[in-house]
Amino acid sequence: MWLSLKTSVSIWLVLGLFFAYHPKIYTEEMKCNQPVDVVILLDGSDSISDNDWVRSKNFVKELIGSFDIGLNTIHIGIIVYSSNIGDVIGLKKFHSKETLKFLANRLHHPKDGTDTAAGIRKVTEMMEAESRPNAARVAIVITDGRSKHPIQTTQEALKAKSAGIVMLTVGVGHAISRAELSQIATSEREMFDVSNFSGLQGIVGILRKLLCKNACLVTQKDSTFAMRDHCAGYWSCHYGRAEAKCCQRNHRYVQGKGCQPDGSCNQLCPHFKNTVENDKSECELLTDEDNPSSYIQIVPGIGPISRPCAPGSAFDKSMCSCAKVSKSWKPHVECKPSVSYNFNEDFADQSGNNVFAGYERVIITENGSAKFSDGSRINIWRFANVEFGEKLLLKLRFLTYNYGAVEQPIVTNCYGEYGEGPSIAITTVEQSITIKIKTEFGETGILRFFQVPGFNNVTMVYDGQHVIAKVNGKIKSTALIGNIERRQAGLLIGDCDGQHSFHGEIDYFAVYMCLPDEDVFQRVAPTKGRDIA
């Protein structure tokens, strides 16, 4: 099964993580027992085989089974589309979970074209005519190809979003248009991307988990919710959309009562400076206190999102825009991972960027690790065609089941269909661990270590001058210059070419595209192959 990890498919999903940008802002955990009307728009075009149609229906049934469906909670509608609208299960009449599964199993496969515009139009019509007045509106669009009428599709998606419908997209396979899916989705962070129909199964639990976290999505239309740990802050909900607000100073937000006088609450809302209830400043962009090279924009339905300034510029609140800075200006910015996985329960990214991994034949163990065998791989498409340049840090913990004579790829950016060798590789053969980095100048830096029984701890850094690695406490480096050679493939864990597989477990993996100030960098000398005790 494969789940995409590209930034374009990373999903803050209005379904839940509209405050995920900054760890100081939280949303309340909500039980999945609020009124939400969900319409699943299912592609039934002729490009979908009979077996994949069965997989599509199984995905819909599993999704139904994962939701708390009830008279006063979640209602499900289904629309099959092709060149025309096919089978329809409406929202007006309530169907139990078992009835919905039965009806989903009987959905007919039209086997014609892909008129996504007509399908989205039908979703809007159904929501307007049959959705409950007190229910949030969510549509999940599942397609394996491009729309026959892309301009009309974008127009219909805008109408749906204007009607208060949160639009999610699930693209299946390699024939999809990510640009089109980004136009359909409420934002690029409401996009899923799976490699094949088998991969649909992997996002069922994620969809449910995220749906149940968003207080504004799964509650009544004009409610408010406190910002946990911030006495004056609260979120105002309108048709599933969230707007950050603050009580005036010396007032506390009290759930169910609103802003109440309280002299002990004299803090301003985090990241909203002088913003108070019903008071909008001239500049609606906010300063990112942790990173001067970016700013924060409050997006309706999502919340605060960090937007980067152009290289060499910083956000200037007085100008309400990014401005050039002098070459000597160097803001202190904490180096954070671009992606991080601990595999405790699932394949969810723990970095806060909500990057999702494509995976095939990988199992999450009871001990919280990812288990790999023949053909197992995780593909982080987020890093396909990415310029790593001269800054890359990889961290992982892995366990090898056997020390065979055949090389096992642990982390590479190799992918067989592109016919390219990796420019980034961490491999193991027999009892050795090999780390390789290849630059645009054709030079390759290579470091080798012995692996130990049990889990091996690996930290690898490239800084444009050296490849540096710390493996099980041992540090080595080798001189190397230039940008890391770019590859079309994403960053893969496990099998990269269908011929060589990794047999073992990984319980932590992280990628940084920046260089934190850690002891491992300070202690490394430029002598090739030198061991540092």
Automatic annotation (TrEMBL):
SUPFAM superfamilies for the chain: vWA-like
Keywords for the protein's UniProt record, in alphabetical order: Signal
VWFA domain location: 37-210
Gene3D superfamilies: von Willebrand factor, type A domain
Residues in the signal sequence: 1-27
Origin: domain of life: Eukaryota
Coiled-coil stretches noted in the UniProt entry, renumbered to this chain: none
Pfam family membership, one: VWA
CDD domains for this protein: vWFA_subfamily_ECM
Listed InterPro entries: ECM_Assembly_Org, VWF_A, vWFA_dom_sf
Keyword Transmembrane helix part of the UniProt annotation: no
Protein name: Matrilin-3-like isoform X4
Annotated organism of origin: Octopus sinensis
Source taxonomy: Eukaryota, Metazoa, Spiralia, Lophotrochozoa, Mollusca
Gene name for this UniProt entry: LOC115214778
